[in-house]
Amino acid sequence: MDDTRRQRRATPRAPRPSAPARAYPESSLPRSEAATRREGQAAHTSTARPPELEDAPTKIWTAANYVTFIRVIGTFLWVLSATFMAPNVEAGFSWPIFLLAIFFALIAFTDSLDGYLARSRDEVTDIGKFMDPIADKLICIAALLVLFGWGYLSIWVLVIVIARELLVAGLRMVVASKGEVVAASTIGKWKTGFTMGAIIGYLVGIALGTGAFATVILALSWVAMVAAVVLTIWSGVDYLLLCWGYFS
Is the pTM of this model over 0.90? Predict the structure, then answer.
């Protein structure tokens, strides 16, 4: 009998099956444990990116955007170069101002180049939509200021151009607040083309100095600038009419 009892005591008992883990709601968990669970969920959520955002950083540096940023940098370099030049008609042909005209023409050409690259390569980006019109206005207004400083433009040209740009910028903010976008009109594109063409003509005419050819080029440039001012006013009124319904 004693041996039987000793054998029973020496034999270990089988462990009882443990109860399955219960999923407690977060409200019933202790504060520290609930906070730990929320932090883990937040970390898991933050690391998972939507598929459409996987390539977002690479879309910023497209070929079209490179051209746009080059145009902005080129504008500042152009203005810096122009500040060290002063036209002297009596001195005759001026190579520095002629090179300045070529430099401006190259910058103006990139206005069409970046748009073509963005459409042909299907790389239209938000930053490109934002920077492209700013780059266009920057180079035009900068060149007009230089021509005004040299005494070839009236102050009214600058006032009209700058007033139009401020009006359009304000209207775009109003339209954007409504969740809409008004595309650039054909009149605005003609306005930009005439303005850049007139600026190039003025620079070439100034570089030629004296002579009948220089006089003709300056006269044609003045006509083109008058047309650009008319188109500037027209495009501003047209944009205002297009956006008028968003004020109600």
Answer: no
pLDDT tens per residue across span 67-83:
888 889 999 999 999 99
CB contact set of 58 (below 8 Å; sequence gap of 6+): none
Kindly state whether residue 123 falls inside one of the protein's structural domains. Answer: yes
Nearest to 113 by CA among 145, 91, 135: 135
Query: How many structural domains comprise the chain?
Result: 1
Which H/E stretch holds residue 243? Answer: helix 212-243
CATH code, domain carrying 118: 1.20.120.1760
Backbone angles phi, psi at 22, to 5 degrees: -95, 140
CA distance 244 to 248: 8
Is 147 among the domain residues? yes
Identify whether 17 is part of a domain. Answer: no
**pLDDT at residue 16 in the model:** 56
